[in-house]
Structures are given as C-alpha cells and as structure tokens.
Amino acid sequence: MAKILIVEDETAINELIRRNLQLVGHTCFSAFDGPAALERLSREPVDLMLLDVMLPGLDGFAVYQQAQQVPTIFLTAKSGLPDRVRGLTMGADDYISKPFEMLELLARVEAVLRRTLKSRASFELDEMKIDFDSRQIFLRGCPVDCTPKEYALLETLVNNRNIALSRERLLELVWGYDFEGDTRTVDVHIQKLRRKLELEGRIKTVYKLGYRLEASP
User: What is the pLDDT of residues 120-148, one digit of tens each?
Assistant: First the structure.
C-alpha cells in the first residue's frame, strides 16, 4: 500500500482522514503546518500528499512548490474556486472541496495512486486477483466471467475495504443516483460475487446496513 502525508491543521479532520486511510491499508503521517510538512518530506519520501491550502507557517501552494513533484491532492474550501484552479495549474493531481465525504476522498486517493504507482495496477486477496487496467478478475490464475456491474461492485468494495457500506450507498456508487431499482439488486450481485470468487468469508453482511469486504490492511 501507499505512504501518505496528510497536511491539515485542523486536528479532528487530520485524524479522521488518517484513520480511514489506515483502515484501507495505507501508512499515514500527519503534519499540521507548512514547515512541519516539508520537514517530514525531507526525512522520508511519500507516495501521495493530501495538502490543505490554508496552513499556518507556510501555505499549501508554497509547500507544493518545494515538495519536489510529490503527487498531491489539494484540500480546498468549498468556495475556493481560485485556489482549485491555481492548484491544478501548478500541476497538482486533484483537489477536493471541504467539507467532503470520506468515500469520495478514498476514491480520489485510489485514482491518483493508480496513475502514479505501478504496483496499484492489481489487487490480490486469497486466491483472487483483480487487474484494474484490463478490468479482469482471476481466481487461482483463471479468468472469471463477471458482468460490468459485478466488476464495478467488487472494485468499490476493494477500494473501501474494511469499511461498512450501506446498500443505498452501494447503489449510488455502482448503479448511479438515477437507478430505479431497489436495494435487493445489491444483495443479488453480492451473492453472485461470493459464489463466483469464493468470497463467502470475505464479504461480510453488516446487520441492518449493508456489506463490508474484510482484508488485512
């Protein structure tokens, strides 16, 4: 998994991000101001930096300029369109507006890491392997025929592994907000994934909520 530096001066937000990223398997470091971020980077390289624009000591743009091309997602205020434009113009990989949903942040992190880290082109769990580039799934080295929605559901569970996702949230993430079906669609597809990929012991039912893919961080 990746090494991620979280540069955010609000302690509660920094801690919330750190806990969720660690839950899906990343190694995280925290910094609460600009100089501390640069000092941390000087001691150990990281794969990704989540960087707040408004920081004490040194703002996020100054940190980014001195960070020697570290892949970066800027955290900006909801109304901060000029900040977002400036960050992307400088070469940042992405931005996300505060307040944000944690699942959205995890998805943005996964997308950037997939572009910047070759090792993230695949994911393995027990005897199953997913090749993200080809969108193929293998079980004991043999390809498994899955529908596009089954693949999208599995990828969503993998990207949010160890996190409980409600059926409603899975519908939104996989089928879209305008899907007219009900949550039983999720149950049917989960059953198919469990059977096809022998994931009965990995995809757990969360009582009165939804599902969670259990995988060691």
Answer: 678 899 999 999 888 999 999 999 999 99
DSSP 199: -
pLDDT score for 79: 63
Q: Domains of the chain, with CATH numbers?
A: 3-116 (3.40.50.2300), 121-213 (1.10.10.10)
pTM beyond 0.70, yes or no:
yes
Rounded to whole angstroms, the Cα distance separating 65 from 85 reads 15
Please choose, from the candidates 168, 166, 176, 159, the residue with its C-alpha nearest in 3D space to the C-alpha of residue 205.
166
| Residue whose tokens read 């507006």 | 97
Q: Are strands 203-206 and 165-166 parallel, antiparallel or unpaired?
A: unpaired
Distance CA 90, CA 99 (A): 23
Question: What residues contact residue 127 under an 8 Å CB cut-off, 6+ apart?
Answer: 139, 140, 198
Confidence label for 176 from pLDDT (cuts 50, 70 and 90): confident
